[in-house]
Write a structure and sequence with these properties.
The protein is an alpha+beta fold. 55% of the residues lie in helices and 21% in strands. It has a three-stranded mixed beta sheet with strand order 1-2-3.
Amino acid sequence: MQQNKRQRQIASEIKHKLGEYFIREGKALTGESLISVSRVEMSPDLQYADIYISIYPETAEGEGVFQKIQENIKQIRMFIARNIRLRLVPEIRIFKDDSMEYADRINKILRDLGE
């Protein structure tokens, strides 16, 4: 879906601030895992933000970290409200970005075919 300039600006700002959040304040949620915000997509009315994150290392512990993040969505939304000036703070939905896993699988298949 094509996003307009305002959607891209807000998505970029949310991505930047959440990156800071997971580095500085989110250690209680993430433990030793590294969280990367891969992309943020805003709805046309700016009421919803779909946030895609990658968790490293990709282990069973990563699933637990993702669950903790899901359980603390209100706290993350409050962080956004405190750090970004918006008339209306969007409802956030967090998804696990598995594009890197998919790319690794494709690379492995291609390597296996080459042998």
